[in-house]
Specification:
- The complex is a heterodimer of chains A (360) and B (208).
- Chain A is mostly beta strands and 360 residues long.
- Chain A has two helices and 24 strands.
- Chain A has a ten-stranded antiparallel beta sheet with strand order 13-16-17-24-19-22-23-18-15-14, with no helix packed on it. In chain A, strands 3, 5, 6, 7, 9 and 10 form a six-stranded antiparallel beta sheet that branches.
- In chain A, strand 22 and strand 23 form a beta hairpin.
- The radius of gyration of chain A is 22 Å and the shape is globular.
- The termini of chain A are far apart.
- By secondary structure, chain B is an alpha/beta fold.
- Helices cover 27% and strands 20% of the residues of chain B.
- Chain B has five helices and eight strands.
- Chain B has a five-stranded mixed beta sheet.
- The longest helix of chain B is centred in the middle third of the chain and has 17 residues.
- The N terminus of chain B is likely disordered.
- Classes of the chains: A mainly beta (360), B alpha/beta (208).
- At the A-B interface, strand 5 and strand 6 of A face helix 3, helix 4 and strand 6 of B.
- Strand 6 of chain A pairs antiparallel with strand 6 of chain B, so a sheet runs across the interface.
């Protein structure tokens, strides 16, 4: 009786008194027990018919999100893989990889449930490139991808981390080359550094859709404005893709920016959403010159390659940080005009030419 | 696996739909059939192809039906009925499959090269980039985007899934080559190997 009363009290106060299964100071306080460790989802198609029963996550807990800091890594990252290591592929002249596991967090390091991990593998030698069905992260952000037998001899691979849940704020996709050089004799790769997804903010001002083939200026906030033709956003539905336009300025020394080596010396970096290619005239960019770069000076622009991100002279490969052209600071010094149009809405970075920055 | 059967009236409906400029997704005929005998169509006067349908190499592919631009259903019976087609290269794609998108120009090139010899190509889309089900609008834009001269169709129910090797649709694209005189599956694999595909096509079409 006393226990029932205690549990009832816990349910009312949502203080997580019944959270016996969790051994970490989780950001999500669950009343119902969760299994020790993590929710490991196997390589099953994740969307739109993800069956929660196929993951080890329990039935939906009553939860309260508390913003008390970054999540600890899931314990599953250090446990044995569900399947034993099958060993290297006979005759493989690349990396033999049978499974990859990792976890995802948001910009503040909190575990991100319901995100999707999806990778494309470049076959070694004359092997083809194949793309694997996405896998959904569990409550602690953990995921495992099992590589099909025929695709286990790889030259490399890129992971696309994305959140497509309409119930959650938009986030920019992240594309990261996978560190197969860390396999070290195993075919099962554990990536301990989390994939980090940064939230973006909806446009500050945006004209109504109207004629979807007409160009219009959209203020994405944080000093970024774009000229865009909604029809050219090559996504699911013109209206919804246009409505979803969002961006966020992110410090270039922020954690989890796997596509940067750290020595890019950027003056600005934007995360953008939705992660889609833009055809036709692309997206023209104008950025407020808050850095005080010298009037008329040149500004280099870069983009993170995503799916079908096509430049005038080729593609911006997934996961690559690619130079797309040189813009300039306006004569009055108030803004920076972008160069060639943006071919996709992933991450955009820029830096002024040497000597254009104001003296410190 | 869901089986669909198209009939000759679809072509007439297609013309009507084109005239009306209607781009709504058509009602697809679905004949669910549990009996093994239902898989076999044996009317010799029918334009339909016959066989006991299967999913493996050496077996006859079921007359799958898809959603297509211009607002009518399009499927394998339509391919079978193309008198100038001897071989079908069928490949699945999705909006999130970078590899699939990269192969489109190569498909266009191969189609251009071998169409007169009897090759037809069909791209079957099953999901959009946001992982939602593909639709006819996506097929239209895809065909436009890659400037393709062959059918691009939508497979929102992913009826092509059983055709993946071992039924495992983990890896995309699926590439199949089908003899359109018998609708027999000659080849299937995941991943597009251009050299392999070209060699098979050249060999089957007798092109040097």
């Amino acid at each position: 009786m006393k226990r029932i009363i205690t549990m009832g009290f816990c349910l009312i106060t949502t203080m997580g008194c019944g959270n016996e299964g969790s051994d970490e100071p989780s950001m999500t306080v669950s009343i119902e027990e969760t299994p020790a460790g993590s929710a490991e989802t196997e390589n099953e198609p994740a969307s739109p018919e993800v069956d929660p029963a196929n993951s080890t996550a329990m039935a939906e807990p009553m939860e309260t999100t508390m913003t008390s800091g970054p999540s600890a890594p899931p314990t599953a990252l250090t446990e044995a893989f569900a399947n034993s290591d099958p060993g290297p592929v006979t005759g493989c002249n690349g990396y033999s990889v049978s499974a990859i596991r990792g976890w995802m967090v948001d910009q503040d390091g909190r575990a991100l449930a319901g995100a999707l991990a999806q990778m494309c593998i470049d076959g070694a030698g004359d092997g083809p490139t194949t793309c694997l069905q996405p896998v959904e992260t569990g409550p602690d952000g953990f995921f495992t991808i099992t590589v099909p037998e025929g695709d286990r001899c790889a030259e490399g691979a890129v992971m696309r981390a994305v959140l497509v849940d309409a119930e959650k704020p938009p986030h920019a996709a992240m594309y990261c080359h996978l560190p197969f050089d860390e396999l070290s004799g195993s075919t099962q790769l554990t990536i301990t550094e989390p994939f980090r997804l940064y939230a973006t903010s909806p446009a500050v001002s945006k004209p109504d859709l109207g004629d979807e083939r007409a160009s219009r200026r959209v203020d994405l906030g944080d000093g970024l404005t774009v000229d865009v033709v909604p029809y050219d956003i090559f996504g699911s539905e013109v209206a919804s893709d246009y409505a979803a336009l969002s961006a966020k300025s992110v410090p270039s020394d922020s954690p989890g920016l796997c596509f940067l080596s750290g020595d890019e010396d950027l003056d600005g970096l934007y995360a953008m959403s939705p992660d889609l290619p833009v055809l036709g005239e692309g997206v023209r960019v104008q950025i407020a010159n808050n850095q005080g770069l010298a009037s008329g000076s040149a500004v280099e622009f870069f983009i993170l390659g995503g799916i079908d991100c096509e430049l005038a002279d080729g593609k911006a490969p997934e996961g690559d940080w690619v130079f797309i052209g040189t813009g300039s600071v306006s004569p009055d010094g108030s803004s920076i005009e972008g160069p060639a149009p943006l071919p996709c809405l992933t991450w955009l970075g820029y830096r002024g030419e040497p000597g254009s920055r104001p003296a410190q | 696996m869901q089986m669909t059967v198209s009939s000759g009236w679809v072509a007439f409906t297609a013309v009507a739909v084109l005239v009306l400029g209607c781009l709504e997704e058509p009602e697809r005929r679905v004949d669910s059939c549990e009996d093994e005998a239902c898989n076999t169509i044996s009317d010799e006067n029918s334009p339909h192809y016959v066989g006991t349908f299967g999913t493996e190499v050496g077996e006859v592919i079921a007359p799958l039906d898809f959603g297509a631009p211009e607002g009518f259903a399009f499927g394998l019976q339509d391919i079978y009925q193309q008198s100038d087609t001897r071989l079908l290269l069928m490949t699945t794609s999705s909006g999130w499959c970078a590899a699939c998108k990269e192969e489109q120009p190569t498909l266009a090139s191969i189609h251009s090269e071998f169409r007169e010899s009897g090759l037809e190509i069909m791209v079957v889309l099953f999901q959009k980039q946001d992982y939602s089900a593909a639709d006819i609008r996506m097929a239209e834009r895809w065909k436009d985007r890659y400037e393709l001269d062959f059918p691009v169709v939508a497979d929102p129910d992913f009826i092509t899934q059983p055709y993946y090797p071992g039924g495992d649709a983990s890896a995309t694209p699926l590439v199949m080559i089908i003899d359109t005189s018998t609708m027999e599956i000659l080849f299937k694999a995941t991943g597009f190997r251009e050299q392999t595909v070209r060699a098979l096509v050249e060999n089957r079409l007798g092109v040097p």
